């Protein structure tokens, strides 16, 4: 199976490229903005394409004619999206339309990565068919892209996920693990929110969930997250304990003490029963995810392949 992965310099994209290109029967085309930042450079093809470049995006799809497209590329910083709405719409909505138009010409299966931020955070944890009601522009852009994907003339799936954590080569954004580790190691104090709830997602589990979707050509919306409902404060304390770092540097705060341009939903998190039953998705606990990332060697559990 030939798979085109967008956002291949991002956290999920890097895991997908490494995972899929190591599997027999997969041919992988990676695309990102600018040079390839993944250290592992062999076993797949990399093409630099800006997602806002209509001819570039459609040309890429038509040149490679993939069996499946995993569209992970996006403007993911919610505050940047709030400050620069045009760029956010271009990267998250218009680019999705370009890619989908390419997919419709080549008959490629289309998997779109979406977010818990399509929900308002008043009723979490959420199921796939709960009504969306985004509270910030990033979430609104993803909800708009989902509507476009749902009208596709090719088989499609939407994988929504929540607060993804892991390690990437030359990353452009932090996640709960890198953020806690880097700051506490430098003895910096951190204000950590204790009134938002999430089901954080180990990037390896998310990559595996995406593989299961394209392998099975499973259609529809799937919630792919971890299963533990935690606040960022709970997560930060677990990371610090795991690394034997000083939790006294944390200040437990509520979300109102942050002056961020983008409002965050209070309680999201996902019910993942559909993915467990229909895909065989089986994520690690947060503790297992930490061990897999920070500890000794490979994760203790794989979903097979
Ligand atoms: N991380 C999370 O907590 C969550 C992520 N998601 C979704 O999952 C997907 C993957 O997220 P993740 O890997 O963590 O995000 P990252 O921000 O790590 O990766 C997104 C990638 O998209 C690339 N990109 C952005 N704009 C463009 C553009 N105009 N042209 C080409 N490439 C572009 C970025 O490039 P560059 O590296 O150069 O900036 C980046 O490499 C996204 O769709 C995201 O919305 C959903 C919920 C939670
Ligand atoms: C920066 C910061 C964050 N936090 C908390 C708030 C938040 O719940 C969590 C992560 O904050 P961030 O600003 O990194 O991310 P945020 O934009 O809140 O997270 C989102 O990313 C996008 C891409 C998604 O789609 C969502 O699923 C979600 O994971 O950490 C603190 O407690 N203190 C801080 O100083």
UniProtKB/TrEMBL annotation:
<dbReference type="InterPro" id="IPR036291">
    <property type="entry name" value="NAD(P)-bd_dom_sf"/>
</dbReference>
<feature type="domain" description="RmlD-like substrate binding">
    <location>
        <begin position="1"/>
        <end position="294"/>
    </location>
</feature>
<keyword id="KW-0521">NADP</keyword>
<comment type="function">
    <text>Catalyzes the reduction of dTDP-6-deoxy-L-lyxo-4-hexulose to yield dTDP-L-rhamnose.</text>
</comment>
<keyword id="KW-0560">Oxidoreductase</keyword>
<dbReference type="InterPro" id="IPR005913">
    <property type="entry name" value="dTDP_dehydrorham_reduct"/>
</dbReference>
<comment type="pathway">
    <text>Carbohydrate biosynthesis; dTDP-L-rhamnose biosynthesis.</text>
</comment>
<dbReference type="Pfam" id="PF04321">
    <property type="entry name" value="RmlD_sub_bind"/>
</dbReference>
<comment type="similarity">
    <text>Belongs to the dTDP-4-dehydrorhamnose reductase family.</text>
</comment>
<protein>
    <recommendedName>
        <fullName>dTDP-4-dehydrorhamnose reductase</fullName>
        <ecNumber>1.1.1.133</ecNumber>
    </recommendedName>
</protein>
<dbReference type="InterPro" id="IPR029903">
    <property type="entry name" value="RmlD-like-bd"/>
</dbReference>
């Amino acid at each position: 199976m030939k798979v085109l992965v967008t956002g291949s310099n991002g956290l999920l994209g890097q895991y997908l490229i490494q995972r899929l290109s190591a599997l027999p029967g997969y041919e992988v085309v990676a695309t990102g903005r600018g040079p390839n930042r993944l250290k592992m450079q062999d076993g797949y093809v990399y093409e630099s394409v800006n997602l806002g470049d209509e001819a570039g995006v459609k040309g890429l799809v038509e040149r490679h004619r993939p069996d499946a497209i995993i569209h992970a590329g996006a403007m993911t910083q919610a505050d940047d999206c709030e400050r620069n709405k045009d760029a956010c719409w271009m990267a998250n909505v218009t680019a999705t339309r370009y890619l989908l138009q390419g997919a419709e010409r080549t008959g490629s299966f289309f998997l779109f990565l979406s977010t818990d931020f399509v929900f308002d955070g008043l009723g979490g944890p959420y199921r796939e068919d709960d009504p969306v009601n985004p509270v910030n522009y990033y979430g609104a852009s993803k909800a708009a892209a989902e509507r476009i994907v749902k009208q596709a003339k090719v088989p499609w799936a939407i994988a929504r996920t929540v607060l993804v954590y892991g390690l990437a080569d030359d990353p452009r954004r932090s996640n709960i693990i890198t953020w806690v580790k880097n700051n506490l190691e430098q003895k910096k104090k951190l204000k950590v929110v204790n009134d938002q709830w999430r089901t954080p997602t180990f990037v390896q589990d998310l990559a595996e969930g995406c593989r299961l979707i394209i392998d099975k050509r499973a259609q529809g919306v799937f919630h792919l997250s971890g299963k533990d409902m935690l606040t960022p404060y709970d997560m930060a304390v677990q990371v610090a304990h795991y690394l034997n770092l000083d939790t006294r540097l944390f200040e437990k705060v509520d979300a109102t003490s942050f002056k961020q341009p983008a409002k965050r939903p209070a309680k999201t998190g996902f019910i993942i029963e559909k993915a467990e039953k229909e895909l065989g998705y089986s994520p690690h606990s947060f503790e297992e995810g930490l061990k897999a990332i920070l500890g000794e060697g490979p994760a203790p559990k794989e979903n097979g392949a």
